[in-house]
Design a protein that fits this description.
306 residues, mainly alpha, MetI-like fold, 2 domains, flat
Length: 306
Amino acid sequence: MITYVARRVLAGVPTLWGVATVVFFMARLLPGDPARVIAGVLASPEDVERIRKQMGLDQPLWVQYLDFMGSLLHLDLGTSAHTNAPVVEEIGSRLPYTIELALVALAIAITAGILAGIVAAIRRNTWLDLVISGLSVFGVSMPVYWLGLMMIILFAIDLHLFPAAGADEPASIVMPALTLALFSVGLIARMTRSSMLEVLGQDYVRTARAKGAPFRVVVFRHALRNALLPIMTVIGLQFGALLGGAVVTETVFAWPGVGRLLVDSIFFRDYPVVQGLVLMFGTTFVVINLLVDLTYAYVDPRIHYS
């Protein structure tokens, strides 16, 4: 197991290097002069040049790249050009909000998605299966920003049930979490239905039912556990996607997480923060993929790593 984990960690290093390289050059393809944006339209040319030197933008591109990669080797993400605070502190102050939102959305998606998928598989080709399948397609196809705006109009403006924006009240998380979870609910439900249909036709399931095992035991202990591997893969990837997908949701609902920080940093041409956030998202996907692979052995003892 230790050898496998070490090999996967080493394999993730080139991936993160590629992410760092791409985000470095992509950030510099953004239109506009970041020094001018940070200094303001009324700033003098001397002030703009001073900021350009502080950001290292007066250096050749290859020098900037080497400095950036050298800082990463020392786990230094740099300093925000907009707030002059360390990037780690900027991300750290916003990250708990995004993690909270992603965890609540994931809990909703797992609960609703797996239950819906099980019901659809058990009631295959019935009206209930058609309704669940249709709602799953609806959830996967619905644009997050449009759904968020519709929820604000209905539940915040018309019905006054939840706050329209911010994170000042406990109820503020309800609409962002539901909006963020809808896509994952549809995806998990479809995967659960497909995986359960494959398992329900296996001999050991029919044998358990023939022996008179209770229906819930057949479904949850025999069928669902053996159908979990592809479902777990989707759930793991969705958690990473929820962190990334929170960019739109947090912007719509003014949620003070890293997604909104990324949008603001792009607007202010804050290269260090943009680079740090994209690297964080890339690292999250690498770590989650490793954790999902490791949990396979717990779900299915026949799986061994070497």
